[in-house]
């Protein structure tokens, strides 16, 4: 270990601070326009690499050295003569004037113009005050770029006193409270003041005065704490937990306490993915607490820099602007089909379901006008037989979403999903600690094995799925937490396999009040089919052999491109033009009529109408448009119809091709053996058929002379 010459280091520090890059900030700090001064250690590295290494290894000591140099040079940078004074300035100035007056009374002046003596007396009075009381700035270090974030688990005892950078998820943020850093006492005997700098969260108050007056009078006056003359700073304690990907098998996630002071407070909130740089320190205790703790010391990180990442900082290329990215998407002709196929490409088929999951990632537009709130988050429930890749889809959505929480139904309680009442270790007060839904605010919460949850725990989700809030009234705490989250749930049938002869409620044992809150209920069944089974087996075999998806007609988009696309798409706020209102209303009335006449059809409630609007705005966002088009509404209704069609009873019905079903739909619309082609296509689209299937069916039956198309291509005429 090399012994440092601190006086020589202070000269180097002075050169760094007097560099032109810091001049403007020092002027603003000296004039009280700014409070925060952050020194980039990359600048120190260029000037003196050894000093940079010494700062990283002994950060607290060099923070004091930088502050000492700053105290010396800051008066030279003051430009403004009259600065705004706070209460502490007025208090200190009044005490200095009082001491000078008392000194003048004790020491008679030799001449009338002793200005120099007054100045010396003023400086002598100011030197009595601790530097922490006189400072009006905060000093922090920014770590060098060569220092990469490490998991909480890798912070060791050898790092005590070092500047470290960790990554993790914020699980709890305490309230911001005042922390005393300098305690001021007044003697009841001699009226002198005593100052006590406090370097930890607890201290032993002084009781007896040790001033010169009390010593001369041979008295020992009692000290009284003066809050008005003491200095307080903002204080906040947060808890950071390591990422689930960094937790070894068989271990529980580790967490660490982070102490934020001054301008570092209120930088992050529960659920944020963060990189935190700070000094790794032990907690100093005194008195009885130290006796109980013995040789064991708790540790914490004193925050110097907080960066909120939310899984995007390392994986999104920000060198390309939003306009350039949109132009690149248009040039490469990236359509919704390619985006949907890029979702879990290792899973075979399910194109419509992947489109729905893409819309869940993008989300609709929230409506918050005149006190009324309509959610824009899309909720989807996947139901089906075991082994149809429901959990794989949830896992991929959890990875691609910029903010997400993955949980399991049986391993989650109502408190774990919403919020828990905890006792603060510092203040002893009851505080709220957010659950999975709060941590996933403005993101996605993936809940697997949704049907395994207890009924009492599942009811906690009802308010979240519609009002997007969590109301708490526990332990004297009555508040409402934001939970603006999209829920993606996966449920297995109660009877092992899905029984198409029974309703959805009987198969998954979920109440209708909960099912109606899902915008899309998608059933994935495992039905034997020779062609599909052959293709699926080939696909699974290839994935198992090569650990990647088979080669497709086009290259699936990387996850970082998907995240950037979703991030830009969310910046658009599409509106529905008035001319499309009638189309939406008529389509909703048709869906209600079909649901009323068909006993096997799943229920259609007014929430279905809101689902059409949410899906339409999400489709417009994918087009990077601020206006919803008729094509978006048609596709939204087609996806809803496809989700409903996946649940309908099919076991007792003979195998009928899609072309035959389309022919039956169009024949029912025939009036005088004629049907308008546009109306027929719209009707079939609403019922869940794609444009390719409709066009193929029309061509097939035209070749079979079942009908023919008029010369103007506008009417279907039955033969």
Automatic annotation (TrEMBL):
UniProt KW Nucleotide-binding keyword: yes
Pfam families according to UniProt: MCM, MCM_lid, MCM_N, MCM_OB
Gene3D superfamilies assigned to the protein according to its UniProt record, in alphabetical order: 2.20.28.10, mini-chromosome maintenance (MCM) complex, chain A, domain 1, Nucleic acid-binding proteins, P-loop containing nucleotide triphosphate hydrolases
UniProt keywords, alphabetically: ATP-binding, Cell cycle, DNA replication, DNA-binding, Helicase, Hydrolase, Nucleotide-binding, Nucleus
Domain of life (superkingdom): Eukaryota
Annotated GO MF terms: ATP binding; hydrolase activity; single-stranded DNA binding; single-stranded DNA helicase activity
Main location: nucleus
Keyword DNA-binding: yes
Start and end residues of each MCM C-terminal AAA(+) ATPase domain: 335-540
Residue span of region Disordered: 102-127
Catalyzed chemical reaction(s): ATP + H2O = ADP + phosphate + H(+)
Localization per Swiss-Prot or TrEMBL: Nucleus
UniProt EC number: 3.6.4.12
One cellular-component annotation, GO: nucleus
InterPro entries per UniProt: AAA+_ATPase (IPR003593), MCM (IPR031327), MCM7 (IPR008050), MCM_CS (IPR018525), MCM_dom (IPR001208), MCM_lid (IPR041562), MCM_N (IPR027925), MCM_OB (IPR033762)
Enzyme class: hydrolase
PANTHER family listed in its UniProt record: DNA REPLICATION LICENSING FACTOR MCM FAMILY MEMBER, DNA REPLICATION LICENSING FACTOR MCM7
Known role: Acts as component of the MCM2-7 complex (MCM complex) which is the replicative helicase essential for 'once per cell cycle' DNA replication initiation and elongation in eukaryotic cells. The active ATPase sites in the MCM2-7 ring are formed through the interaction surfaces of two neighboring subunits such that a critical structure of a conserved arginine finger motif is provided in trans relative to the ATP-binding site of the Walker A box of the adjacent subunit. The six ATPase active sites, however, are likely to contribute differentially to the complex helicase activity.
Family of this protein: Belongs to the MCM family.
Protein's name according to its UniProt entry: DNA replication licensing factor MCM7
Gene field: MCM7
